[in-house]
Design a protein that fits this description.
alpha/beta; six-stranded parallel beta sheet; 16 helices; 2 domains
């Protein structure tokens, strides 16, 4: 272990994601903690999840998970069990007790919560209280995607539920997985007026998985010479059936006029009966149907056009790959996807179509048009796609600060990690401090300034950013 690496103070990370509709929260936590472990390979990450990630993602060594009973989101702030046939009160008690017991035994150094500060049904509150009261209390960080719902809906809901108070009372920092130039999460949701803890934008969190060469993927998919490749994906797929059915019919129409290969990826959360229905329709239309794939990015990278919904991870992947995308947003249960698709389309990053009354003929016409267009996606220098690294660096710096504070109480010049190794106290290593991705960061920079490359949004009561 290098004594200059700010991320290598060995620690235990506990993450929470509820994943009430898709897999976005889980995937963000995996992307951030995978990057964290790359810089702190002796650390461990335990994930509290609503769906089993090992079935859909490759987890690196050091990450494991405990699955909670699954839930589904039916409206803003409203969830219900998706499988178990037990009452909601019993379900709440079951999830609550599991979360608290895991945290009690695991004793994390860092807690990373995605999106819901108090947890579904307030199930995190007993655990947050317990952890905060410990002498070795962990650092608690809240991660938020850039768009949750319409601003007035979020502000009203958070005030009614006491969410701002929960964040101020229990959390040490907030990171926003987005860019203020696209959507000013801090201002729109009143965080600058209501919160008294540091808030930081870190950019969009993208997967860092290896992408296979486009030519290799097209060969494997049997794309004919001169064919255009259109790949259709709906993220997890739980609510993608209507969109994908229309896409199959539209691709069938386009194939009558253009040399085209269509590939449809259903997603792991789509129901089996819906998958079978789509498989039959795809076969009749000459479209290739895939149940689920590992290495989703490689398929998208090979495409001439991607058709997708407007989930956070789906569009982050499109931005990373710089692919032409025709986006059909989900209409509910929140305004998240419609808002994101409108903002991205306005910046020339995607094309978008409303799913309201969308016919196969309308979609086919737009597919033909987008295949010929060369005016999107545009280069946008204000889009930051380095969110995984920056969020992981922020976690590392928070952990370092926690370790320093704990051992300064003992007056020691060095402090041990869990593995028994030691690193110098800050200041002693300043001359040769090296960060794994930024290189040498010597004299003028403090340790935290070197790790954190995005400005902090300072809270104040005036409603303006500091």
């Amino acid at each position: 272990m290098s004594s200059g690496n700010l991320a290598d103070v060995e620690c235990r990370v506990l993450t929470y994601s509820h994943d009430g509709f898709g897999m976005g929260h889980l995937r963000r936590n995996i992307n951030v903690t995978t990057r964290f472990l790359a810089d702190a390979p002796e650390s461990s990450v335990l994930m509290l999840v609503g769906c089993s990630p090992e079935s859909y993602f490759e987890l690196p060594a050091g990450i494991d998970f405990i699955k909670l009973p699954s839930i589904v989101k039916v409206a803003t702030g409203v969830h219900q069990l998706s499988s178990l046939r037990i009452g909601q009160l019993q379900a709440e008690a079951l999830r609550n007790s599991l979360i608290k017991r895991v945290a009690d035994v695991y004793r994390p150094d860092l807690l990373l919560v995605d999106y819901v500060p108090a947890g579904v049904w307030g199930e995190l509150l007993p655990t947050l209280r317990m952890l905060k009261q410990r002498k070795d209390a962990p650092v608690m960080m809240l991660g938020m995607r850039e768009i949750i719902d319409a601003p007035d809906v979020v502000r009203e809901h958070w005030r009614r539920e006491g969410t701002y108070e929960v964040i101020n009372r229990y959390y040490d920092a907030v990171v926003v997985y987005g860019c203020p130039d696209v959507f000013d999460t801090v201002r729109e949701y009143g965080l600058d007026r209501e919160l008294t803890i540091p808030i930081r934008y870190c950019g969009y969190v993208c997967s860092e998985e290896t992408i296979r060469p486009s030519e290799q993927m097209r060969e494997e998919l049997l794309v004919g010479e001169g064919d255009r490749l259109v790949v259709v994906t709906g993220g997890g797929g739980r609510d993608a059936y209507p969109m994908m059915r229309t896409c199959i019919q539209a691709l069938g129409l386009v194939r009558k006029e253009l040399p085209l290969t269509g590939v449809l990826i259903a997603g792991p959360l789509m129901g089996s009966s819906q998958k079978e229905s789509l498989r039959e329709e795809a076969r009749a239309a000459g479209v290739r149907f895939l149940n689920y794939v590992c290495g989703n990015l490689s398929y998208l990278n090979a495409a001439d056009l991607v058709i997708t919904m407007a989930g956070y991870n789906s569009l982050a992947e499109v931005l990373r790959l710089k692919k032409k995308a025709l986006v059909i947003p989900r209409l509910g249960p929140s305004a998240e996807q419609t808002t994101r698709s409108e903002l991205f389309a306005r910046r020339g990053l995607i094309d978008t179509l409303s799913p309201r009354c969308l016919s196969p003929e309308q979609l086919a016409a737009r597919i033909r048009l987008d295949l010929e267009r060369d005016d999107f996606p545009v280069e946008d220098p204000l889009i930051d796609l380095d969110g995984a690294r920056q969020a992981a660096a922020h976690l590392a710096a928070l952990n370092r600060d926690r370790a320093v504070a704990a051992h300064e109480d003992h007056g020691s010049a060095v402090f041990p990690t869990r593995g028994g190794m030691t690193v110098p106290r800050p200041g002693q290593e300043r001359i040769d401090l090296v960060h794994p991705t930024m290189g040498s960061i010597s004299e003028p920079l403090t340790a935290e300034a070197a790790v954190l490359s995005r400005p902090i949004v300072k809270h104040n009561r005036s409603g303006r950013h500091g």
